[in-house]
Amino acid sequence: MTSSFRNGNGVYVQLDELAKLQHKASGFSFLPKQPIHSVLSGRHASKLRGRGLNFEELRCYLPGDDTRTIDWKVTARTRTPYVRVYTEEKDRTVWLLIDQRVSMFFGSAEQMKSVVAAEVAALAAWRVLSVGDRVGALVFNDLDIAMVPPHRSRERVMQILKQVVQKNQALSADAGLKHDPGKLNEALKQVSHLARHDCLVCLITDGDGLNSETRRYITRLSEHNDVLTAFIYDPLEKDLPAVGRLRFADDEGQLEADTSNRKLRAAFQNEFERKLEWMKSASRCFSIPLLPLHTARPVSEQIRDLLGHHLSTKRA
C-alpha cells in the first residue's frame, strides 16, 4: 500500500540507481572507533568485534611489548616471559538481510520503505567492498529467500543489487499478494547457520513479524557475531495525522482511510511503538546498534548522521 507521492518517484528502485550509490558509500563506518555523536560510540562500541584475530606464534617478551599479550601459563612453566602474537584476519564477512515484503511497500512522502531498504543495502554493500571485506546477502520477500554467497568483488555486489531490484519491482499493493510475517524469522534462521563467527549481520527491515522466535535467533547470532539493525519506518506510522480521508494507491487500485478515526490512528501508532520498543529492547539486551531510518529524507544523509562523519576511515 502506498500513498500518492508528490513527484511520482521513490516507488521502485532501478539497478543503475543502486550502482551509483557506490560514490556515496563513504563518510561512515561500522567499526567501534566512531565520533562522539555516532550511535556506535560508547557502550555499543565495545560490542563490535571488528575483524577477527588469528594466533600466529609464541615468542619471548621484548621490551615495549604489550603486557596484556603475555601468556602467563607458558611464562610460569618456562620461567621466561612469553607473549602471544596475533595477526589480523585479511577480511571479514558481512551478511545483509534485506526485507522486500509487501509490508515494506508503503510510503507517505519521498519514497517507499522498500526503496529505503534497498538503498541502505546498496550503501552497505559498496562500503564493505571498499574496505576489502566480503559481502553476502539474503534478500527476502513474502514468497522466498534469495541467498547470495559472500565474496569480495564488484560482481558480487551487483549480483546482490540485482536480487534486490528483482524483488523490489515485484512488489504491489494488490490484495492478491499474501503477506508472510514469518519470512523474517526464516531469513534469520538461515543466516544463523551461515554466519559461523566474527561476521557482521545487518538486518534491514520494518520489523513486521517480530516475536519470541526472532529473539532466539538474534541471541544465537550475537553470541559469536556482531548484529546491526536498520529499522525502516514511515513518518505516518509514527504519527498518523488527523487530516480526514487519505487515499492510498498504486497502479492496481485505491483505498481510502479516515484518519479522523482515533482508533485507526491509535492502531497505527501502537504498532509502530511496539516494533520500535522491541528493537530497542534487543539493542539494550545484546548491545546491538539500532539505526532508525525513515522515508522522508535521503538515506545516505541519515546514515552519515547516525554513524558519524568518519571520512578518513580505512575500514568498514
Layout of secondary structure:
Elements lengths: L14 H6 L32 E8 L11 H7 L3 E7 L4 E7 L13 H18 L3 E7 L4 E7 L2 H16 L13 H12 L5 E6 L6 H13 L1 E8 L1 H4 L6 E5 L4 E5 L3 H25 L3 E5 L4 H9 L9
Helix pairs in contact: 3-4, 5-6
Outline of the structure:
Helix content is 35%, strand content 21%. It has 316 residues and is α/β, with parallel strands linked by helices. The chain has a six-stranded mixed β-sheet, with helices on both faces.
User: What is the strand tally?
Assistant: 10
Number of discrete helical segments? 9
Taking the alpha carbons of the first and last residues, their distance comes to 35 Å
Largest sheet: 6 strands, mixed
Query: Structural class from helices and strands?
Result: alpha/beta
State the CATH architecture of the largest domain: 3-Layer(aba) Sandwich
Identify low-pLDDT runs. 1-8, 32-38, 41-47, 249-255, 309-315
Radius of gyration: 22 Å
* Helical content class: 25-40%
- Please tell me the total number of domains: 2
The chain-level mean pLDDT equals: 82
Strand content: 15-25%
CATH topology of the largest domain, anyone? Answer: Rossmann fold
